[in-house]
Amino acid sequence: MAPDYIVQMNHISKHFGGVKALQDVHLNVERGEIHALIGENGAGKSTLMKVLAGAYPKDEGTIVIDGVEATTATPRAMIDMGVSVIYQEFMLAPDLTVAENIFIDQMQQSGMFINWKDLKRRAKQQLQKIGFGHIDPGKRVGELSVAYQQIVEICKCLAKDSKVLVFDEPTAVLTHSETQKLLELIMQLKAEGVTILYISHRLEELFAISDKITVLKDGKYVDTVETASITKEQLVTMMVGREIEQLFPERNAEIGEEILRVENLRTGDLVEDVSFSLRKGEVLGFSGLVGSGRTETMRAIFGADKKTSGKVLYFGEEVHFKNPKQAIRKGIGLLPEDRKSQGLLLKQPIRYNATLVSRQGNGFINHKKEQEEVRKLLARISTKYGSTEDNADSLSGGNQQKVALAKWLAVDTKVIILDEPTRGVDVGAKTEIYQIINELAENGVGVIIISSEMAEIIGTCDRAIVMREGRVTGEVPKENLSENQLIKLAMGV
Ligand SMILES: Nc1ncnc2c1ncn2[C@@H]1O[C@H](COP(=O)(O)OP(=O)(O)OP(=O)(O)O)[C@@H](O)[C@H]1O
């Protein structure tokens, strides 16, 4: 029997200026399957999905949805054909309620008198249908957690009768248990006949839920394979074009004297009592659930937020950084978790972003020299970009993360705090980032890594601190690091 394709994208090409983001790409998805899309940062996954959603016009190629060719692929036309995309940055209106967000498109279209009671009832029904009936349809979306906002976004798509749902890295911002819930929901949607396209850099997720995987590399189609017929290693080789023997490279750092000590730190409403120390050449992991206060702790140390009480000792001396500038001057760096709002200036050139920290205090700048240095820096972590003068928003998500990291590699730090350093980064580049972390440690830098990926904490750290509800619940040395141990401490059991 001939395959029953619901999405057929063939010979798709798309360029942005000189960058060929997609060249003669194919994507054929059968009705009712979960089809994963994978590839390195900048491979063209998001662009292909934006072309499918009608958000970007294609240069060449055809799109056929359920047997009908999309001749005018605008966002409206593609929604009408049954395709909806759940982007990493949700398209929700934070000031409107859950119910209003779910039905916003219908409300705008009908322009009729709105029966609020009915709207709430229908929203509740939608939420119940996918097992989230406990979300209040009258609540403002801005007050919901990221995971719940994502549920609202999914309901919004389902309310539009979407036949094909595209998830673009949906779990990057979710906790372990939220991720499990989302994966279950996706399986449920599949059982109800919805076709799913799924982008993720987390291979274990792809192997858990997908039926087929399409691999892209450098904007080109590599292959489509049955998930059951391939191993993780084979998939990685297809993706990066080489074998990755070891995701977490070995390190033989010499751990030296104590350089940072935090005593009974209290900050904001969340962090109540945090104490720990960091030594020269040490990689210290911070594990815990989202909302456990890890980011807030680091921000207070870095002078980005005020501490209410407690002490920070740096090389044995008490310090009171009033702002990040003071911390940076003393050799402390922080790569924030949210690169979009804190890590990068998206409307500024890549070069400017990569030298943001190193140029502080330098009046005269030699552009040529700077460009050359930036190129070298970015090559160290295989960043894919057009020109150093392009704005940061022209970069793919993972490559934005690399530029945000690069700016810290351009300066000498003694302590560097990396908040979710590999979020949205592909496996090949992850290894390169781990290698850089190792090099920093070998050069005597004390490195702190906050990570929601337990494998990352286990694979890279000499020791881990686990936080829960604003307090430290445990400290685990390398030899005892295990997922089980980290989960127990994070959940308080
Ligand atoms: N609006 C844009 N303007 C210029 N170039 C762009 C734009 N959007 C994407 N690109 C370029 O197109 C290429 C593909 O990017 P895309 O975002 O599709 O990659 P991706 O596979 O989704 O990567 P990631 O895993 O990092 O999210 C990249 O080289 C990127 O820099």
UniProtKB/TrEMBL annotation:
Domain ABC transporter: 7-243, 254-493
Pfam name, any one: ABC_tran
Keywords assigned: ATP-binding, Cell membrane, Membrane, Nucleotide-binding, Repeat, Sugar transport, Translocase, Transport
SMART domains reported for this sequence: AAA
Annotated PROSITE patterns: ABC_TRANSPORTER_1, ABC_TRANSPORTER_2
Molecular function GO terms recorded: ATP binding
Source species, domain of life: Bacteria
Signal peptide stretch: none
The name this protein goes by in its record: Sugar ABC transporter ATP-binding protein
Organism: Bhargavaea changchunensis
